[in-house]
Design brief:
The chain contains 13 helices and two strands; from the N terminus they run αααααααααααααββ. By secondary structure, it is mainly alpha-helical. The chain has one domain. It has a two-stranded antiparallel ribbon with strand order 1-2. Helix 1 runs antiparallel to helix 3 (70-90), helix 3 (70-90) packs across helix 4 and helix 3 packs across helix 8 (150-162). The longest helix has 32 residues, at 19-50. It is elongated and about 70 Å long.
């Protein structure tokens, strides 16, 4: 009797799965990342709206969230954390998924916020005015273009938190109360809703971060290199942000003797070493004399 041979298929391994299956799994992961991101951000926004309604303690906590250092945590949660967690969970495409989740959350919040404030929505609006002046498409495209530099401002803020204090410790540059710069308050302005409110809050935070950074850079520049630029046009352009360039830094055609004399005059024997015209010269260890 002839023998009968049967062939048994070898078990499939993970590497043997059809490409379509891997593609569907990746897409599923990306959709999950986007959905979880949107849900988490909307939940966070809901909590921020609810906290000030919890009485005096809630209002106090809400105000604390509006200024550094707690504001730094809020900004990181909404703007940076999704872009870090997304690729950890789903690879580099996770950044795209996280961005999609952030945009969905933002647009959902804008819709709901405007829906909750119908009078303000129908009244005078920044977005309506600028749409009329420059055109709807160009206005919105330009606004979204500004969003791409959020990581830059966040990195500047990190430098303020972790790098500048080293200069305070090592060479006596003045300390600053970051909350006096890094804070937001435009949510209290009557009539700002939805699109207008979120972009005004972004500008609110961004301007404070940049202004504090400029203040710190004034100290750095005057301390290490109080020499005017050879370009008169550059001096003119920079004098608003770096006032010492006008009268206190030495001329571009002077010598090193003049530079060292200025440094001795402005910094020798001082415990706190701020840029030359700064009111911190009337402070003790970074605190106002009156305090």
């Amino acid at each position: 009797m002839p023998e009968v041979y049967t062939q048994t298929a070898a078990p499939r391994t993970a590497g043997d799965r059809p490409a379509a299956t891997g593609y569907h799994e990746r897409m599923t992961n990306l959709i999950i990342v986007a959905a979880v991101t949107a849900a988490a951000l909307l939940a966070g926004a809901g909590a921020l709206h609810a906290i000030p309604r919890l009485g005096a303690a809630g209002r106090k906590l809400g105000d604390s969230f509006g200024r550094a250092p707690l504001l730094d945590l809020i900004v990181t949660f909404f703007l940076i954390a999704p872009l870090v967690v997304g690729p950890i969970v789903a690879g580099w495409w996770g950044i795209v998924a996280a961005l999609v989740g952030q945009i969905v959350a933002l647009q959902t919040w804008v819709f709901l916020h405007e829906l909750a404030h119908p009078a303000a929505r129908r009244g005078p609006r920044i977005v309506k005015t600028m749409n009329r002046i420059v055109g709807r498409w160009r206005n919105h495209a330009a606004v979204w273009a500004t969003a791409t530099v959020v990581p830059l401002f966040w990195l500047v803020r990190l430098a303020q938190i972790f790098v500048y204090p080293l200069l305070t410790l090592l060479i006596g540059l003045p300390r600053y109360k970051a909350a006096d710069w890094v804070n937001v308050s435009r949510h209290k302005f009557e009539g700002l809703v939805g699109h207008d409110l979120i972009w005004c809050l972004y500008c609110d935070w961004m301007t404070g971060v940049w202004s504090l950074g400029s203040e710190m850079l004034r100290n750095v520049e005057s301390f290490w290199c109080p020499i005017r630029f050879a370009s008169g046009k550059k001096c003119e352009n920079c004098k608003l942000d770096f006032p010492d360039v006008v009268g206190d830094w030495v001329a571009a055609d002077a010598g090193m003797k003049e530079v060292t004399e200025v440094l001795e005059e402005k910094y020798a024997g001082r415990k706190e070493r701020s840029w030359f015209g700064h009111p911190a010269r009337l402070t003790v260890e970074g605190r106002d004399v009156k305090d």
